Amino acid sequence: xxxxxxLATLDDYFYQRAQWIFKKLFEKxxxxxxxxxxxFCEKLGTVLANDEIIQTNEGIVSERGNFPVIKxxxxxxxxxxxxxxxxxxxxxxxxxxxxDIKEIQKKWIGKKEGFIFNFFILLENNKKDDNVIEVFTTxxxxxxxxxxxxxxxxxxxxxxxxxxxxxxxxxVYLEQVRKKTNLEKQKNQNKTGIFT
Length: 196
Description:
Order of helices and strands: HEEEEEHHEEHHH
Low-confidence stretches: none
Mean pLDDT: 88
Largest sheet: 3 strands, antiparallel
Shape: globular
Helix content: 25-40%
Strand order of the largest sheet: 2-1-5
Radius of gyration: 21 Å
Distance between the termini: 62 Å
Number of helices: 6
């Protein structure tokens, strides 16, 4: 073993450069705090990556110890890689990787051409000015025919849009969805939902 090539994140050399890089990203507004849904394990007292959790019949558990994992929003540092989507996609051709791996990277980068429309919602029980549902479409001509909007289960306005007669059904549905891992949601091609 050639120990001269060892790299340890606790070395001064490593973490000083890591901090310097982060500081530069922060100065350019490419690193910022955001409320992000995470996999949180209370028993382990930490956030877990998607590959550290397992879907069981009882719900999501940690890979270490099979402890219950819940989805919850927490402040996390986020990097704005979308600013470099075009460059990242362009440089994939230079990588000596299998095509299916490159496809996974393309999906992760997630660049799409299209338009964003904002639907402003007036709510009696939520007096905030930012009651907005943002919609992305590749075909703006279809926006005039919109008669319904589909929201993700984690959308902040869900609680305010559900009618009294549908609240119990919606809560049951949301509980079922929250027990699924992101991977499980992506695998299932059948779209599900519930009327609010």
